[in-house]
Amino acid sequence: MNDLLIALLLGVLEGLTEFLPVSSTGHLLIAQHWLGPESDLFNIVIQSGAILAVVLVFRARLLALATGWRERDAQDYVLKLGVAFAVTAAVGLPVRKLGWELPETVWPVAVALILGGVAMIAIERYVEWRNARAAVSAGAAPPAAVASLSATLPAVSWNVAIWVGLAQVFAGVFPGTSRSAAAIFAAMLAGLWSRPAAAEFAFLLGIPTMFAASAYALLEYARNPAAPREDWTALAVAFVAAALTGFVVVRWLLAYVKSRRFTVFAVYRIVLGVALLLFLPGQ
H or E segment at 220? Predict the structure, then answer.
């Protein structure tokens, strides 16, 4: 297959799966099992292409944070994004340097997909139960509490910022976990129980996280004279494809989570993980 066509397909796949809680790294690994492996630089940089979509979708929110930096709420939100990013960097860089990462083969990805799917269902049900119980204690009806999970955007706590930062490191160590899923569900479990609020924080945190990861990968590539030659044209095609596809997916997902659970993605993860274990054992 033509290299540019492969790059286009991988870019579209990255854009589709970076924000859905199904693991873009896992899907890229599976696709490259048949299409041929790409470099770590390629896989990291096209993730930044997908993250560029977040900048476009949240451009009004980012502008409001930038121009309203004197306002306490904006300062608080940006500081918590900074803390989450700092936690990711402070823990993630040593982890990367030490090489603490599972091998990017099908078996660990399949297991991570299955366990992640089960965890998503369990966490979402627990969060709904916890908040329904709190609402009953406060004298509200349980259905109102469940509805508020989608209708309200509560404040991000420092506890949420720290746990979301750690969750990103966890996702980096375990291929198939999904950075977005780990961040969203860590936020919900730590108290940010609104799906839209958790998704927004996770997506905005992805901007500095993935751009920094791409810059670091490019720096490593530049400093390594023995690095294999990169096909920059193919990389550019994949980057643009990931950005355009990611833009559509982010807009759709933000509307979807306002009134729906993540259950369909959890079931998909479990089914895909089982299929991989059955049909690609030992890969």
Answer: helix 195-223
pLDDT of residue 208: 93
Which DSSP symbol is given to 262? Answer: S
* Residue 163 · residue 189 · CB < 8 Å: yes
In whole angstroms, what is the distance from residue 99 CA to residue 190 CA? 28
> Pick from 181, 193, 196: which is nearest to 130 by CA?
193
Q: Which two tokens stand for residue 239?
A: 């980057």
Give first-to-last CA distance, the chain, whole Å: 22
Which pLDDT score is estimated for 152?
Answer: 46
Which residue positions in the chain have pLDDT lower than 50?
144-152
pLDDT computed for residue 96 by the predictor = 75
- Token readout for 231 is 């096909």
What's the pLDDT at 239?
95
Tell me the Ramachandran region of residue 141: left when phi exceeds 0, alpha when psi lies from -120 to 50, beta otherwise.
beta
Rounded to whole angstroms, how far apart are CA atoms 54 and 248?
A: 10
- Quote the pLDDT of residue 136: 72
**Pairwise CA distance, residues 191 & 213, whole Å:** 28
The tokens for 141 are: 């009806």
Would you give the distance in Å from CA 253 to the centre of its chain?
Answer: 12
H-helix segments, the chain: 3-17, 24-35, 40-57, 59-67, 72-98, 106-137, 142-151, 158-173, 179-189, 195-223, 232-256, 263-279
> Given its phi and psi angles, is residue 260 left (phi above 0), alpha (psi -120 to 50 degrees) or beta?
beta
Burial (0-12, 13-18, 19+ Cβ within 10 Å), 2: exposed
